[in-house]
Write a structure and sequence with these properties.
Elements lengths: L6 H17 L7 E6 L5 E7 L6 H8 L3 H9 L25 E2 L4 E2 L19
Antiparallel strand pairs: 1-2, 3-4
Length: 126
């Protein structure tokens, strides 16, 4: 979760997302995205009614198996959780490493899969 967003703004965003889902009778897991300005006003960007590539991050901080929930809904069962059941615990980071030509933003054609041999992270919170 963003450290910029206050708990109050986060709750308001969640309420807006749930209102949107109810308005279109959406019954599965999904993602509603917002843009936030410097005064913490938020604006609807899009709703994704599919599994996001970043879903493991959400699963890490909520403890909810999103894939399982989507499969349950597809099988005709209700979601196991309501929005108020889902809390945020901690932070998670996802990193992707790309082999791209930095000028043309295209994959490097002569690049073969390899192993990342060095990863340095800071464990100090400030």
């Amino acid at each position: 979760p963003s450290s910029f967003i206050t708990p109050e703004v986060r709750v308001a965003m969640g309420e807006q997302a749930c209102q949107l889902a109810r308005a279109v009778n959406y019954q599965s897991a999904g993602t509603v995205e917002f843009l936030v300005d410097s005064q913490m006003n938020f604006f609807f960007l899009e709703m994704n009614t599919r599994l996001q590539v970043e879903h493991p991050i959400t699963e890490c901080i909520t403890g909810v198996d999103i894939v399982d929930e989507m499969l349950r809904v597809a099988a005709g069962y209700p979601l196991s959780y309501t929005q108020s059941d889902i809390g945020i615990k901690g932070w998670a980071v996802e990193c992707r490493v790309y082999a791209e030509d930095p000028v043309r933003y295209l994959p490097v054609l002569d690049c073969s899969p390899s192993t990342l041999s060095l990863l340095s992270t800071s464990t100090t919170l400030s």
